[in-house]
Amino acid sequence: MSLKIYNSLTREKESFKPINEGSVGMYVCGPTVYGDAHLGHAKSYVSFDIIARYIEYLGYDLTYVQNITDVGHLTDDADEGEDKLAVAAKKQKKHPMALAEYYTASYFEDMDKLNCRRPDISPRATGHIPEQIELIEKLIDAGHAYEVNGSVYFDVTSFKGYGKLSGRNLEDMLSGTRVDVKSEKKHPADFALWKKAEPNHIMQWKSPWGMGYPGWHLECSVMSMKYLGDTIDIHGGGLENKFPHHECEIAQSEAVTECPFVKYWLHNNMVTVDGTKMGKSLNNFINLKQVFAGSHERLSKAYDPLAVRMLILNSHYRSPLDFSDAALSAAESGLDKISSAVKAVRRAAEKAPEGEMNPKVQKQLEGLRHRFEKAMNDDFNTSVALSVLYELVKLAEKEAGKANRASLNAVDELFSSLGGDVLGVVRESYPEDSKALTDLADYLMQDVIEKRAKARAEKNFQEADRIRDEMAKFGVTFKDTPNGTEWVMQ
Ligand SMILES: [Zn+2]
Q: What separation in Å is there between the alpha carbon of 446 and the centre of ligand 1?
């Protein structure tokens, strides 16, 4: 049983074999930091976080690079428009770098809440200007790029493979492009590597072609090759980046190195809200801080960030995800179910008798792990993996009151491994589960247990039932054993 990944480049599921045995390099296109992260970011970065976690689970030594775009991403993909950061900075009367700093911190804050592990390297585009200039010079020398009026463009006709990822050919691209008679490009599909800056443009750097700034696509080629080598194992990003962004990355890189830029291309699908594409003008553009605070009119309440993670896991990363208040609420119920089972098992394990691991439980756990891995090996099928986790919940509920400590610890370990390490929805500890609180509850419950025993001794069953029902509201049930009455919380 080995990992199979759907490769967008070959359009097939392929067996995963990294370039260097035992280690994996993964590059994922990061956010352009000019606003708060939204649901689309959550879908992309939770998906790749799970992919990263599962690759590590399989024992590979992973280096995960995810860039921060702080310059060059224009409001229009066709090399026109303004820099997204510069536009937002002007509006907020801030320096673009101050804005980038603010939203980078905001992005990581949200991703931490979603339990996305930090990438190993988060390189900034503005921190790699000399490297980007160097790559442009190499492209010009090799005849793949040309300079016009202080800007430099990549000549797409010089690179045979242009279009291989998105399945487009140059004629298709021509029919889809506005032919601008004033354009300085030789071919309408040529793309900018370097843009000449007007004197009032805030972000500009000195280059052999005058003052300017790099094209957006360039940073990913440069930073990917700098930190992971000429050919990397996995390159990920949103489906909307397949063309032109990733197509351009391939062209810029392979035209210079003459070797494959990426072995496996992975693309996550997009998010819709209540069945409609997210758009700022449609009032369905929801950012993560609004979800966590419940401060958007489409939301009925504040949500646990891990409920968002659960919702994303419910569908495959290559499938679109429809976000709604009802779907999120259902995902939160699922999360609560898992958390309750984990907490119950951990509490029960503390009180459970010593003993050998129950072979029947062990066999069931092994079966569940096997099925979980089978699902994840099938191009990271998280929705099936999650259904296996729910089966573990059922097993946990069945065993919590009766199994011995070794068996319960094994159940907890499987929760922590599959639900924690890989899916990231089981927490290492639950704050309300702290020892002090458990001890306090135990102390207070003695009173309740005595009251109930007294009522029963006096044959006051109405009062005994009242106590039972009252406690049931908190998920507490009583168990009468030869050593007295015990209480359990589900
Ligand atoms: Zn990129």
A: 60
Split into its structural domains, the chain has a count of 3
Helix (H) or strand (E) holding 480: strand 476-481
CA of 301 to the centre of ligand 1 (A): 34
Annotated binding site: 29, 220, 245, 249, 280
| DSSP run (H or E) holding 86 | helix 84-92
pLDDT at 434: 67
Identify whether residues 420 and 441 lie together within a single domain.
no
Q: Are 34 and 137 contained in the same domain?
A: yes
Tokens found for residue 77: 């993909």
How close are the terminal C-alpha atoms of the chain, in Å? 36
Q: Quick one: 296 exposed, middle or buried, by C-beta within 10 A (0-12, 13-18, 19+)?
A: middle
Contact at 8 Å (CB) between 419 and 425?
A: yes
The reported pLDDT for the residue numbered 432 is: 63
CA of 390 to the centre of ligand 1 (A): 36
My answer on whether 59 and 207 are in the same domain is: yes
Residue 156 near residue 162 (C-beta atoms within 8 A): yes
pLDDT in the model for residue 377: 98
> In angstroms, how far is CA 483 from the centroid of its own chain?
49
Tokens 């280059």: give the residue.
207
CB atoms within 10 A of CB 327: 16
Residue 387 CA to residue 331 CA, distance in Å, equals 13
Residue with tokens 């970011």: 41
- At residue 178, the pLDDT reads 58
Retrieve residue 317's tokens: 């990363």
Annotated binding site for ATP: 280
Strand runs (DSSP E) across 166-231, as ranges? 191-196, 212-214
pLDDT at 79: 72
Q: What is d(CA 53, CA 72) in angstroms, rounded to the nearest whole number?
A: 31
Interval between CA 267 and ligand 1 midpoint (Å): 12
Token code pair at residue 303: 């949500």
Quick one: pLDDT at residue 202? 83
384 shares a domain with 255: no
- Give the domain extent around 479: 435-489
- The Å distance, Cα 72 to ligand 1 centre, comes to 11
Binding positions for Zn(2+) are 29, 220, 245, 249
Residue ranges of the alpha helices (H) in 38-128? 39-57, 84-92, 96-113
- Tell me how far the alpha carbon of residue 95 lies from the centroid of ligand 1, in angstroms: 24
Helices (H), 168-317: 170-175, 216-228, 247-257, 288-293, 305-313
> What digits encode the pLDDT tens for the residues 38-94?
999 999 999 999 999 999 999 999 999 999 998 877 776 667 778 888 888 888 888
233, two tokens? 């194992």
CA distance 184 to 64: 38
- How confident is the model at residue 118, as a pLDDT? 98
- Collect the ranges in the chain with pLDDT lower than 50: none
- C-alpha distances out from residue 373 to 1, 4, 132, 180, Å: 9, 11, 41, 52
Pair 119, 97 in one domain: yes
